[in-house]
Fold this sequence. Notes:
The structure holds 2 protein chains of 2 kinds.
Chain A: E1 2-8, H1 13-22, E2 29-35, E3 42-46, E4 49-53, E5 56-65, H2 67-80, E6 89-95
Antiparallel strand pairs in A: 1-5, 1-6, 2-5, 3-4
Chain B: H1 5-30, H2 38-65, E1 68-69, E2 73-74, H3 93-111, H4 121-144, H5 148-152, H6 160-178, H7 194-213, H8 221-248, H9 253-267, H10 276-299, H11 308-326, H12 329-332, H13 342-374, H14 380-385, H15 387-392
Antiparallel strand pairs in B: 1-2
Helix pairs in contact in B: 1-2, 1-3, 1-7, 2-3, 2-4, 3-4, 3-6, 4-6, 4-13, 6-11, 6-13, 7-8, 7-9, 8-9, 8-10, 9-10, 9-11, 10-11, 11-13
Amino acid sequence: MKKVEAIIRPEKLEDAKSALDEAGYYAMTVTDVRGRGAQRGISLQFRGKKVNVDLIPKVKLEMVVEDESAEKIVKIIQKAAFTGEAGDGKIFIIPVDGAYQVRT
Amino acid sequence: MPIDSGDTAFIIICTALVMLMTPGVGLFYGGMVPKKNIISMIGLAFVAFAVVSIQWVLFGYSLAFGPDIGGFIGGLDYALLNGVGLGGEGIPDLLFVVFQLVFAALTVAIITSGGAGRIKLSAFIVFALLWTTLVYDPLAHWAWGGGWASQLGALDFAGGTVVHISSGFGALALALVLGARKGFGKYAMEPSNIPITLLGAALLWFGWFGFNAGSELAADAIAANAFLVTNTAAAAGALAWMGASWINGKPSTLGFVSGGIAGLVAITPAAGFVDMPASIVIGALAGLICYSALLWRQRKGLDESLDAWAIHGVGGFFGALATGIFAVAVIGGVDGLIYGNVDQFLIQLLDAVVAMAYAFVVTFVIAKIVDLVMGLRVEETEEYVGLDLSQHGESMDA
């Protein structure tokens, strides 16, 4: 089993969710997070003074799936969360040792 | 008439109540925007209050209430409150100045709806100063300062044209000049904090008692009537909007309070002229009409998303007409259309149409000029990170 952990733009969450829905992947956990990538956030200029806004709000989408689904899910999220601008996000695939239901 | 301590005490309290409506508008709007713009939205209302507080005592009051010039504007005789003193009719003149000041400030706060999530703070300050001078002050003069509308006999008890038509259609013009927020219609821009919006609505409803009852400028029976009809119209508007939205889906609390405000807006010009049964009809119709205006605005894809236009603009327009329909002589001394007075209805119609056209066109021009001179809208990256961070260096996340 693998965990797909995708950190994407909050405004792209709905697109990613519906694309995953269409492909039949429903189970997920979504968290509001903040972070920065290689650009170290966004630089704003105020009257010649540079102000760096780091730790931009993002959402983290986590899904634990069978091994063979992981790559497919990554591709779906990549396509749905794409804008082409810096800050589109990152997706990780993490091995999962076990998974248990709380209810049963 | 000498100064009356009861009237003075009452109007001091009403003035304080109306002041609370300005941050109330800020909270009302703040809860409706994405989390990255909440502080900005509330902040704009406070900034509007401060800018108008200074403008009004320097020359705004004089432009509105100074000696009439051609029915259009007041002269500068009372600039810096020159000659406005401690004396007065019933209440001190200085109290009248500050009571009117809180109305003007609230009106500018309502306009911030049109700039949600994209207006530059520095440009807003300049816009607010120009707008209150060139739009609000003439409209206040027309209705209450001896201008053409009051000479014609147009009725506007507490500011249906002055406050609501002007700010509602002004917000629409501002939103059109600014253009829609980036991603509008593509990304979800759901309200991020409904409880803050409900708190804002509560402060508005509460403050509106001072707004309408206080507009009698005396603690008397007309003030009591205004208080009662204000509350019943608000309740009828809230229930009507909730009912209409229930048919289309869930009865949201946001819709409920929006209907309440629609009722409050519509009863504002009528509060000193209509009786209780009329207030229920006016409030309920306002709820339905403003809800329809909101649905139309959404279908057209217009990003005036906090709905100053749908609620204040359309509600104010309807209220001005409703005053001409439902006015009853035993309360305000004037009969309306249903009591056979066609002329009053036509005067109300003319007043509302002129106020609407003037507010829309002049706001559009002011916004265009500010945009050309200093840029009205923030940079794209600033809009992306949100105005809280980009304009104020503050954040709800921090």
